[in-house]
Design a protein that fits this description.
alpha+beta, 2 domains, 3-stranded antiparallel beta sheet, 5 helices, elongated
């Protein structure tokens, strides 16, 4: 049986047209004798329905993610407000959920009232969190380049590498209970 991959009002990349679009309608295709749809198509306002494999969510388009990375941005339906009530949101009727596990468990989400107060900031936070593994891989690449030829690296690059080492050490360290360890803001100094 088919399950919807994308949600209404979700931004998707349409491979065949090389354009971003918004899912306007989810159209299940039913067959006699089945309790669930046999196929799902999506109307993205481009004149024809698209199958799930023809579309990519925003989280799947970003390059540079670490191998085996499972962090992704999903959209959850807003149960307390209709799309019309929150037309000022970037994706009316939904809010971002960052999932950090293959089984769609764990991650980050915000209360609806907080999202409604400042949806653009919350969207930016969600994208930053999803990008964290790719940014860490980029940071490790920077450290590797500087480590290969530290004397040849410009002073500005060496300074960036020193700061990156502090952040990497902070990320690697798991404090024990009640240790009173410094926050991430201290690690970046």
């Amino acid at each position: 049986m088919a399950k919807a991959i994308f949600q209404r009002h979700q931004k998707v990349w349409v491979e065949s047209v090389d354009v971003w679009a918004i899912v306007e309608k989810i159209m299940p295709i039913w067959a006699k004798g089945f309790d669930e749809p046999v196929r799902i198509t999506y109307d993205v306002g481009l004149g024809r329905p698209f199958l799930g494999h023809e579309l990519k969510g925003e989280e799947n388009v970003a390059d540079g993610a670490a191998e085996g990375d499972t962090w992704r941005l999903l959209r959850a339906r807003n149960k307390w407000q209709t799309a019309e009530d929150c037309a000022h949101h970037p994706f009316p009727g939904t809010f971002p959920v960052v999932v950090t596990d293959i089984g769609d468990w764990g991650g980050w989400r915000v209360p609806g009232a907080e999202y409604d107060r400042d949806p653009r900031t919350i969207e930016a936070q969600a994208r930053l969190i999803v990008s964290a593994p790719a940014l860490r891989a980029l940071m490790r690449s920077l450290l590797k380049v500087v480590a290969e030829a530290p004397d040849d690296a410009p002073p500005a690059l060496r300074d960036l590498a020193r700061r990156a080492v502090k952040i990497e050490n902070y990320l690697e360290e798991i404090p024990s209970a009640g240790s009173g360890r410094p926050t991430a803001a201290h690690a970046a100094e």
